[in-house]
Design a protein that fits this description.
single chain, 59 residues, mainly alpha, globular
Length: 59
């Protein structure tokens, strides 16, 4: 199984905390994120852009 880097784990943790505080928003419309899986996906996406080791997306 593929492993996530510590940088990716920290990014997901930060995003999850934002979601719990009600501060996480998504997309151009800026709707509030309430779904746990969506928050994780946003965190992993940000980690990928930052260059952290994250497994490729499943198609």
């Amino acid at each position: 199984m593929a492993k996530y880097s510590t940088g990716a784990q920290k990014k997901v943790k930060k995003v999850m905390e934002e979601m719990k505080d009600g501060k996480l928003r998504s997309g151009r419309g800026g709707k509030k994120v309430t779904d746990r899986k969506q928050a994780i996906a946003i965190g992993l996406s940000e980690a990928r852009r930052a260059g952290a080791k994250v497994p490729k997306k499943k198609v």
